[in-house]
Amino acid sequence: MSPSRRPLPLALATAAVLAAGALAPSSAHAAKDKIVVGATLPLTGAEARVGGFFKEGYDLAFEELSKKGGLDVGGKKLPVQLVLLDDTSTQATAVSLADRLVNSDRVDFLLGTYASHLVEAQSTVAEENKIPYVNGGGGATKIYKRGFKYLFGLISPVELLGTTLMQWIDEQQRAGKLPKPAKIALLWENTAHGKDFRKGVSDFAGKSGGAYQIAVDESFELNGKDFGALLGKVKAAAVDLFLVDAHLPDYITMHRQYVAAGLCHKIVTYGARGAEKDAIQALGPENTAYVLSGVWWSPQLAAKPGPSRDFVTAFKAKYGGREPEWFQALAYESARVLFSAIQQTGKVDREAVREKLQATKMQSLLPGGTVELKAQFGNQVQNPFVVQQNQKDGSAPIIFPPDAATGTGVGANPKCPK
Amino acid sequence: MARFVDLAVSAVLLAGLYATMAYGLGLIYGVLRVVNLAHGGVIMAGAYLGWVLHGWVGLDPYASIPIVVAATFLLGVAMYRVLVRHLPRGAAGGPASLLLLFGVWLVLRNAAYLLFTGNDQVIRTSYSTHAIPLLGSWVSVNRLAVLAIAVVTPALLQLLLRRTYLGRAIRAVAQNADSCTLVGIDVQRIYTITFGIGTALAGLAGLLSATLFSFNPGFGASELLKSFVVVVLGGLGSVLGTGLAALILAVVEVFAILVMPSYLTAAVGFVMLVLVLVLRPGGLFGQRVLG
Amino acid sequence: MTRWPAIFPPRAAIPFALVVVALALLPVLVGVTPYERNLFTLTFLMISGALAWNWMGGYLGQVSFGHAALFGLGGFVAARLMLHANPTPAPIAWFLGGVAAGIFSLGAHPMLRLRGPYFSIATIGVGEASRLLFTYWEEFTGGASGLSLPIDIGMKALLYWWALGLMALVVVASFLIRRSTLGLQLLAIKADVDAAADVGVNATFYQDLVMVLSGAVVGLTGGLYASFFAFIEPSDMFGFDRSIAFVLMSVIGGVGTILGPVLGAIVFVLLRQFLLASYPQLYLGLYGLLLILIILFEPLGLTGLGLRVARAVRRRRAGARRVVASP
Asked: Pick from B86, B109, B267: which is nearest to C129 by CB?
């Protein structure tokens, strides 16, 4: 007798109960009395830190909007509600929850999650269901190369980060502050982010006609613990430029070992991380001096009046005087762009809003000042990055591009002779 | 030549780290024949405890060693008394013990998320980046401290095992638990204490890690996997073997960068793990119970 | 040669067939939202994977913590074939993915000699080494960025029936293996491999057979998974979390049984959704607690619980009958 036969009815009953719990929609709205925007963010798991920051950006945008009463739709002012779920930094959950938001909770539009692989997976749900998906969290170019019409990215391609850094470095080389040819050690975390960064740098070097040689080109695992051997290889290669793409924990670990090993290079960067306050606190300002970073947005852009300043003021007011970083800015801007498109359309119509999103051309806090979502780039913005450099006094002025600069950069780290 | 010395120094320092991580796992398996999958969770707990003490009371991490060790010892005792004790002994307990402790790890992780959020934390002291010159390269003082502890721990453990009654009882239980009751040894008590020592070692490893790396509630997973490699190489239960195995693993991983991309050097350890298990299951040094 | 006797007794076969038919007709007759349908599809896939894992972990007693390597391999092989200049039709790609995973499993032959936790630890090594190697092998897996498949609008709907069909086949296969002579031989090997060899069971052959079948089916599941998400990347496919998921599903449901992995997979997918939506702060801890309680109190998991309840109900009914019957 098969023991598994008896409990079958019991099993089906259990499954039914669970299914009911899992499938029960979290909200139901009959008449159109509000606009519902769904989103997931990695609030736990590997990307939890930045996920939390993105939430701050979304929260601020929605709060500002509700203070204005909502969006003007069909003559009435409709409030806009955010339904935010935790996708735990896993792909399957991000997709399932997006599915749930769209097909069960019946949200009207979607805002994106954070991290390229999550955005890449989740955006397929949006595309299949023909629902606009505006994100500030997926920077990898390949996400936008699939011909999707409903996916919009407010985050410039990571490749451009590598390219922008190289552009500033190139200026220094042309001014004679760096040797020519300059040898590069290129270390990158083995993620979509790191691969794109590497591509940006190596493409630039390849087109430079020999001005740059990549002497070390190695990837490393996220959350690595020991970079001793790798840094030893860098030391042995006697390079001039130390270019790394890393997330915060690896930045801290690697740079500590870098400093402890007595390494010093004329140019040091860790991708987007250099100016992060947590890092400067963990490593000490004397050790992070002259580190370059390329970011999608910097609070220093608030030095001039404009959308950046408005954003920083509002953020500080809501979050007790704390200054925002690029994470909150991109999330905020994604929401703002979506709101603007809905407002312009005047109705809660996904197709019409999609058209308006595609035609977006508005003033923005992003570097460059305006934001456009052009189909030729897969609806991904191509706004420039700003390059910051930590100075000895603890500040981190923007040194590039010139129109956003608040300070001049030090061409070659004066602490490293020759 | 300088390159060689650099790599050798890196390898020795790394070995210290690996050894410290693995001792606890090895001890628990050696005596209880239980694979402590919560090892990673206790490492994480040790790190957070050190961070809390440093942040709230301003206690230097090295000064808080006794507190963290005591606390994680008690945690291990509690884990054993409440949970592990009920597992069937021997091979029958295999997957059950693995999964029970995995469940404990999940609970620990959740607790950390609730208490501290998922943000990366780091302990920063005045000497975090201090280094001293040694053999032509610079060596971080924290790494040296870890190495020192890695060398001292097995020595202390040996003292415990050979010179004290408790130690002899532990060795007896590891050899033949049933006979021990005949000579009046309270086997459960020995198991409890051993488990506690194992988790205390894990907590210590976590505390030391917190001085070197940043950590979050997910910390400990890769450390656990590496510890498996070390413990298996060393012969699942031999403390001395664990230390030597850590050295061999570290040397292989570090020098592998000369012949393969850095990213793949991590795979070398796991390949070694499988090869050793298949070809020489007693570990590189032959199966010894303790010592 | 193995006989195939009354493999599928009517008492089990008929309710099972009814359930399958009901599920097949569900979207057509009753109508489900795409969300519910997709959730079911994912559940069917997980059930297939868990059952296949269980052939090794439950029937044979070799608990593998490295099945993600097979899942990922099958998925990426299928994805590569579908991305080729001459794209392979999805079902064939999935099948070939399964074949590739099955062949890869053969490589683990030397590991089968290991017993108990030694085998498990070895599989951890294989799993991690595979993850690192395949993440590095960009030409095959796309590296850390993964592979994106072209969107096929109808595919997700069709996958419901494909996954249902796969699940039905795997359940039938589970019965086949368990109730045939092969099953007896596996039980013998699980109990004591040396004694089994003494009574003439060709332990090596059968262990290899089960391992290849288990790997092939898990690889097949990986292929369907790839089509379902239209995007896969190595850390998700090959990660330790993925390997642990297979173990969790079988153990929570009841390792070694057939209903076990089915229940476990249902709990894993649906309960996870439920917890994430209602108690996002606690779902990790609740999972851990569930695991602890099951290991301590009911080694046969939810199936064991169900059996106990059924037995208690029967006893009470028998007792009542006795009371009524006596004059």
From this structure: B267
Neighbours of chain C (3+ CB pairs under 8 A): A, B
Report the C-alpha gap between A105 and C181 in whole angstroms.
Answer: 50
- Rounded Cα–Cα distance for residues B225 and A103 (Å): 40
Residues of A with CB under 8 A from a CB of B: 43-46, 48-49, 51-52, 190, 218-221, 223, 225-226, 228-230, 232-233, 235-236, 248-249, 252-253, 256-257, 259-262, 278, 281-284, 287
| Cβ atoms of residues A200 and A163 within 8 Å | yes
B272 φψ region: left (φ > 0), alpha (ψ -120 to 50), beta (else): alpha
Residue C89 is classified by DSSP as P
What pLDDT is attached to residue A202?
96
Please name each of the domains of chain A with its CATH number.
31-156+306-377 (3.40.50.2300), 159-295+385-404 (3.40.50.2300)
| Secondary structure (DSSP) of B105-145 | HHHHHHHHHHHH-S--B----TTTT-EEEETTEEEEHHHHH
How do residues B145-184 score in pLDDT, each as one tens digit? Answer: 888 988 898 888 888 888 898 888 888 888 888 888 888 8
Asked if pLDDT for residue B91 goes beyond 70, the answer is no
What gap in Å lies between CA A163 and CA B268, rounded to an integer? 34
Nearest to A96 by CA among A152, A24, A40: A40
Per-residue pLDDT of B71-90, as tens digits, reads: 999 999 999 999 888 887 65
| Residue A106 φ/ψ region, left for φ over 0, alpha for ψ in the -120 to 50 degree band, beta for the rest | left
Instruction: Choose the most confident range, by mean pLDDT, from A58-62, A171-175, B213-217.
Output: A58-62
B147 touches chain A (CB under 8 A): no
User: Where are chain C's structural domains?
Assistant: 39-281
Determine which of B143-157, C228-242, C310-324 has the lowest per-residue pLDDT on average. C310-324
Mean confidence (pLDDT) of chain B = 86
- Judge contact between A104 and A23, C-beta under 8 A: yes
- The percent helix, strand, coil of chain A (3-state, each to 5) is 45, 15, 40
| Nearest-10 crossing angle of helices C181-191, C155-179 | 70
Per-residue three-class SS string for A45-102:
CCCHHHHHHHHHHHHHHHHHHHHCCCEEECCEEECEEEEEEECCCCHHHHHHHHHHHH
Nearest chain C Cα distance for residue B283, angstroms: 11
Model confidence at B223, in pLDDT bands (50, 70, 90)? confident
The label of the residue with tokens 């910051």 reads A388
Confidence (pLDDT) at C275:
76
Which tokens sit at A47? 């990307």
